[in-house]
Amino acid sequence: MNAITVLLVDDHLVVRSGLRALLGTQPDIDVVAEASSGEEALERVQEHSPAVVVMDLAMGPGMDGIEAIRRIRERNGRQAILVFTTYDSDADIVRAVDAGAMGYLLKDAAPEEIFAAIRGAVQGKSVMSPPVASRLFQQLRNPDEILTPREAELLSLLTEGLSNRELGQRLFISEATVKTHLAHIYAKLGVETRAAAIATAIRREGMR
Amino acid sequence: MNAITVLLVDDHLVVRSGLRALLGTQPDIDVVAEASSGEEALERVQEHSPAVVVMDLAMGPGMDGIEAIRRIRERNGRQAILVFTTYDSDADIVRAVDAGAMGYLLKDAAPEEIFAAIRGAVQGKSVMSPPVASRLFQQLRNPDEILTPREAELLSLLTEGLSNRELGQRLFISEATVKTHLAHIYAKLGVETRAAAIATAIRREGMR
DNA sequence: AGGGCTCTCAGCCATTTGGCTGATACGGCT
DNA sequence: AGCCGTATCAGCCAAATGGCTGAGAGCCCT
After folding, report:
1. Tens digit of pLDDT for each residue in A83-101?
2. Nucleotides of D under 7 A from a protein CB
């Protein structure tokens, strides 16, 4: 039987080594290449056409994981992409699945979980770490809490520490509109002040 | 020649595997044990008395890396402790060095850097990743920007999104005093609003 | 055509925050 | 004893923020 070919994408060498060592114990899984950036990932996919791409979302400067997923899916849809990352950030999960990820694993997942996810991915099965799945489920249950694109944009700038006036100037809208958006954001995030919104956003949405 | 005995502490199995794989290539370095939590790290140190402890700061629930460093140094000062983590947060660096860490490496360090750090550590040399060293240097150069303990405490609570009133209640001081501290914090962080202070604090101090 | 969502803006008012000045108290250092 | 840093508190005032109501325009979907 043919082994499942895998490409590892992570900007940390130790993580790639660790995955390679772990996956090396499985005869039916074959790590054929590694990449340390989104750009490199695209090249390796072209070269090797791996069956599965295991990818960290957080990568240094340049293309991030989400963008890499999108590009891989666009030009070469045959790969199953597994996200393998440290954080179970709501926004990341949604964006990764949206971009075309087949599964979302946390880095503290047990080896068996990882193996199962890779084997499942080639068969078109979607795999999530339990904590990730429960978060996704919550999101689906509470559509009220999903920010509109404009609100997300504003929230992102909010975490830069801008004032209402500055937000308005940056987005070419009046301060009144800024306040309206903010009020909606607060309601959706379940907070009452801008400070709490920033704290929530940075911590929970992974806006580092 | 006797190999350098090493204990790996990281809550992520893949990271431990990766480090083990990397360090396994060096004949003079011998990984004698692994731990996935601060508590476990203490036990392993007792059991194996490794020459070097390579430790991640961020670990799941329970004892964090800083606390683990402190405890190891307290009861058994013979180990050289190397911090090996993802973030170059100012606060973490200072606290880790304060707790007794010999060096501070980032996870994207080159293998040679890691080997050199371990070898240097047993000889009492202090090793820092270049970006880490430069941050520390900046801290030393700008003593004006170092927060007092009370200010740091307040800033920490600030990132929870509390109001001045709540801050006062939590710290058993008047709102007036809270405002005084805040003004000092803003000046030291070089910001003008609480929002910017929170953003700066969370991003730069690693207050996740 | 109508309903719903998003984005935009306005005005009013209460609360919060920030800037400023000045003050007291304690501890350590010289 | 005197100085400095830290921590505490007060009062005043301007600016920013948040809560509320209401409203028009564009868009998509049925």
Report:
1. 888 765 555 666 676 677 7
2. 5-11, 16-23
